[in-house]
């Protein structure tokens, strides 16, 4: 077993995969314990390398946590994309745009409830919006969760469902409402709701957003 472990470590170095291995280890730590669990020593132990090896790729714990946060954000984006991809055919373009917009919120809430540790970690970010358009936080379509929301809102405008003069800043209003519900469901007083109740609450909040914008 010791020899096998040694070979695994050398393979990681030779192929240059250590950075990705540490991020993946960080994601597993985050899944179980949120951002507080993402520490260099634990990540290196999980990746099967000595602690000092991490400093070849990450200057400190903050750098690793930022990379893991972006990776968790990308997983959120992929969940939102999957929600949109699973939509049944719509009768017309307007109905399809509305369904895609609703799927953005539904996928966001689903990820928060299914992966609370990763959800918390995804939003353990610097105090500005630079991360929201960083390609390291993008899903398969190349868009981040914030960009997926923006695209869905643009789609509503193009199909006559959202007046153009009400489009500016609409993503901040929609994001605030859905994120607020997600936080209440995983860390707040709504965490005791049954799955069916949480789903209904999500659909109601999306209804409210649609009416509001």
Automatic annotation (TrEMBL):
DNA-binding region in chain numbering: 39-58
Record-linked InterPro entries: Homeodomain-like_sf, HTH-type_TetR-like_transc_reg, HTH_TetR, MT1864/Rv1816-like_C, Tet_transcr_reg_TetR-rel_C_sf
Domain of life according to the entry: Bacteria
Keywords carried by this UniProt record: DNA-binding, Transcription, Transcription regulation
Keyword Transcription regulation: yes
Pfam families: TetR_C_33, TetR_N
Residue span, HTH tetR-type domain: 16-76
PANTHER family, sorted: HTH-TYPE TRANSCRIPTIONAL REGULATOR RUTR (PTHR30055), TETR-FAMILY REGULATORY PROTEIN (PTHR30055:SF220)
Name of the molecule in the record: TetR/AcrR family transcriptional regulator
Organism: Streptomyces siderophoricus
Lineage: Bacteria, Bacillati, Actinomycetota, Actinomycetes, Kitasatosporales
